[in-house]
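Cross-check.
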Amino acid sequence: MHSTIKTHVLLTGATGEHLHCPVMVSELISDTGYIGGSVLTKLLSHPLSETFRITVVVRAAEKATQFRKMGLQAVVGSYADLDLLTELASKADLVVACADADNLNAAKAILSGLKQRFEKTGKIPSLIHTSGTGVLIDDAKGMYASDTIYNDLDIPQLKSIPATQPHRNVDLAIVEADKEGYVKTYIILPSTIYGRATGPLVDAGLQNPRSQQIPQLVDAALARGRAGFFGKGANVWPNVHILDLASLYILLIDLIVPHEHGERSQQHSRQGSRDDGPPSRPRTPVILDHAYFTHGESGFFFAENGEHTLLSVAQAIGHTMVDAGKATDPEPSPFTQAESQQYFGGVTRYLDSNSRCKADRAKKLGWRPKKTTKDLLSSIKQELKG
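Predicted model, tokenized:
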């Protein structure tokens, strides 16, 4: 008889809420739920899904009820409930944090819980934290393309990122915790994420299906009747499709979660299997070079599969608007200072800056993103529909 090893997973960010799973995998989902919900959707269909105990921390009692109907445990709370985060993390073997990349207090609460987990069990838990390539931004204001391209295999270059950059204080606190030896940390840095999220959480109205940067530009263009950009639109950002991004989380989870002989995959083989038949082996990730599966200060994983200038995005928006009868002139124009305030609240640093990088570490591990910049530009048609 084969026993099932439970992995505790704490998950926050699937709905703008939080989730908790025992192989114990724990995942923290973002305030929008765009990333976390997509990761959770993949976890629910994972070959080892029935070995995960998932707890969702939600703000609203009605959402908790919906998650329970999906077979998940649910706790009413919020990302501001630091004691709750610590308690949940203290029961987790793995925390996947897809929530606020700039919330240092929440990160410290989670780390405190993971430290308690280590002190209690003697086993080192893991943390997958979501940062972002916003940590690389400059002050280009759309006027030029930077020649600086960061590579996640270049550790000295990564260590040179100033502590004053967005997300950086949280990233450094997480790396420091790894150095102390009570947790293994892995930081994923998504770039411009695009594409509509799909799946049961979206269908149930529990997950936000839209990203931020591209929809912001589309919404502003519709409001002003013409596509726009900042400065000359010459600044460059990398991009990644939401499904490709979610697959990177699953790759790391597959590498972290122990696949021991006592574990039983609940997924039937493609040829079919009897319930009383021999257990099938858990899915094993295809790894090109395991040496690149590192943690701590060398455990940064950029998520990108192409680059775009903001001008190219604005031009694609303009042509798509004309095709849809939403504008008469396909050529974009610069946003004025007043429009910057009106449509973006004056916060444009993730739209008028450069943020350039290469996801070499993840790709050497076997991550195979399928979508490219061409798909990003094609996705604008769907975003135009709101």
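The radius of gyration is 21 Å. The first helix runs from residue 34 to 44. Passed to J.P. for a second look.
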